[in-house]
Write a structure and sequence with these properties.
mainly alpha; elongated; 60 residues
């Protein structure tokens, strides 16, 4: 279980860094057709997964 949290935590850290850099305009994330940066979508997905796992709403 610790390996899963380490993996998700590492990915979350990378996505968080990309999102912050996108927000302060020091990096450019690819965008969807609607113009939403994909790093924001990834941040939402990884945060949701960690919350769901933490509160035992899903199991791996």
């Amino acid at each position: 279980m610790n390996l899963i949290f380490f993996s998700f935590g590492s990915a979350l850290l990378i996505v968080l860094l990309a999102s912050v850099r996108q927000f302060i305009a020091s990096a450019e994330c690819p965008k969807t057709d609607l113009g939403i940066p994909m790093c924001y979508i990834s941040l939402l997905i990884f945060t949701s997964l960690i919350i769901l796992i933490k509160f035992n709403l899903i199991t791996l």
